[in-house]
Automatic annotation (TrEMBL):
Belongs to the glycosyl hydrolase 28 family. InterPro entries: Glyco_hydro_28, PbH1, Pectin_lyas_fold, Pectin_lyase_fold/virulence. This is Polygalacturonase. Residues 1-29 form the signal peptide. Coiled coil: none annotated. It comes from Oryza barthii. The lineage of its organism: Eukaryota, Viridiplantae, Streptophyta, Embryophyta, Tracheophyta.
Length: 438
């Protein structure tokens, strides 16, 4: 494809990006500096976004297009990692203009663990992935070098990863050798398929990511991120295969993604603030989770999160907040709203006594504080008798839980609300009913 067509494609992708944000106002999306909300808002606004800067399409130089096939030996049918690294180096550093790294469609490329590093001279850099990237299926590639990531983008501003192509993690050997599926195996952390670290003003859009060894997509230490229209799939039995994992990042918008894996569809952990997930389909998997937080007596903080317009089907959890005993910190100002659930085992759950360990977790005198949590307009069916379950710490109670127009019914049986050490306020019509007491 020539530079002119790629330039038009890039403009088209940017137009979608502009449309998403042109109808929003970040002043409504999140609290102002003192932590309060605008008078008309009770939480992160449903029709707002994380980015407030105005982008304009202005005439400028056409981007330089760097095709990975130009760096690939004609007879090379094996490892293509070096060709990708050479193409990245050229796209990243060749000019002070926009650049495009092109992975052509209709082709499959084998990539060993690889890191695309910045900073780049290019004002913006777009990785257009239209082909298929395959991870090696041999676990020793990672284990011999103690690596935990397959494809990494590190320290790159104004990066766009677009395409319609596929990333195949070939994770089956990792899953069958996991200590969670085979207790005789040693517990080893598997690699993440696609890892973004220290990437500000990041757009990730239109990719299919499947069968990761462990997590599929990680956003870490990044600011102003848009993740949209991803199709993330792995078998429901595959362990630890989170769809999108957000850590230590601010102003992240996840929109219009379909996620079917063996673990959390979305997990949001410590250091994350001003996070919005909208239009998410989840199932199978473990639902949408804040946490886990506070493991190994650590300090954790997550705040100003909005999860809305989600559909969950056949998941083991619906919307969940999970923290370890013995931790410290806060999970606060979190809203779950406009959510539909079908045959979900634990539709609404807070667990301050979370324990994902082969040895028992003993009661501790501290916990991550959970407060100002709102559930609004959540409807559907529960496959368990306890549809709403708040298990809060004896030492640090859950405070400021608001249930508004939550209606959950059983799959042929009566459902209930169970809670311990939680202060719950109910507004509107709610079923099952949770009495407001400690």
């Amino acid at each position: 494809m020539g530079p002119k067509k790629l330039h038009l494609a890039s403009i088209s992708a940017l137009s979608i990006f502009l449309y998403v944000f042109a109808h929003t106002n970040s002043a409504q999306a999140f609290p102002v500096a003192d932590g309060t909300y605008p008078p008309e808002a009770e939480g992160p606004a449903a029709e707002s976004s994380v980015m407030d800067e105005q982008l304009e399409l202005t005439p400028g130089p056409q981007p330089r297009v760097v095709d990975v096939d130009d760096y690939r030996a004609r007879a090379d049918a094996g490892d293509h990692t070096e060709a990708f690294l050479q193409a990245w180096k050229e796209a990243c550093n060749s000019s002070d203009y926009p650049s495009v790294l092109l992975v052509p469609e209709g082709k499959t490329y084998l990539l060993m663990p690889v890191s695309f590093n910045g900073p780049c001279r290019a004002t913006t850099i777009t990785a257009t992935i239209r082909g298929t990237l395959e991870a090696p299926s041999n676990r020793s590639v990672w284990l011999d070098l103690d690596l935990q990531e397959w494809i990494t983008f590190d320290n790159i501003d104004h990066l766009r990863v677009l395409g319609g192509g596929t990333l195949n993690g070939n994770g089956h050997q990792w899953w069958i050798n996991s200590c969670k599926t085979n207790r005789s195996m040693r517990c080893v952390t598997g690699p993440t398929a696609l890892y973004f670290r220290r990437c500000n003003h990041l757009v990730v859009e239109g990719l299919q990511i499947r069968d990761s060894m462990q997590m599929h997509v990680v956003i870490a230490y990044s600011w102003r991120v848009l993740v949209s229209r991803l199709l993330i799939t792995a078998p429901g039995w595959s362990p630890n295969t989170d769809g999108i994992h957000v850590s230590n990042s601010r102003e992240v918008l996840m929109s219009g993604c379909i996620i079917s894996t063996g673990d959390d569809c979305i997990s949001i952990v410590t250091g994350s603030m001003f996070i919005r997930a909208t239009g998410i389909f989840c199932g199978p998997g473990h639902g949408i989770s804040i946490g886990s937080l506070g493991a190994n007596k650590s300090w954790a903080h997550v705040s100003d999160v909005l999860v809305e317009k989600a559909t969950l089907v056949g998941t083991t959890n619906g919307v969940r907040i999970k923290t370890w005993q013995g931790g410290d910190g806060h999970a606060e100002r979190i809203t779950f709203q406009d959510i539909t659930m079908h045959n979900v085992t634990n539709p609404v759950i807070i667990d301050q006594n979370y324990c994902d360990s082969m040895t028992p977790c003993h009661e501790q005198g501290s916990a991550v504080a959970i407060n100002n949590i709102r559930y609004r307009n959540i409807r559907g069916t529960s496959s368990s008798k306890v549809a709403i379950n708040f298990v809060c710490s004896n030492s640090v109670h859950c405070d400021g839980i608001v249930m508004q127009d939550v209606s959950l019914v059983g799959e042929g049986s009566y459902v209930s609300c169970s809670y311990m050490n939680a202060r719950v306020v109910e507004l509107g019509y709610n079923f099952p009913y949770c009495r407001a007491e400690m």
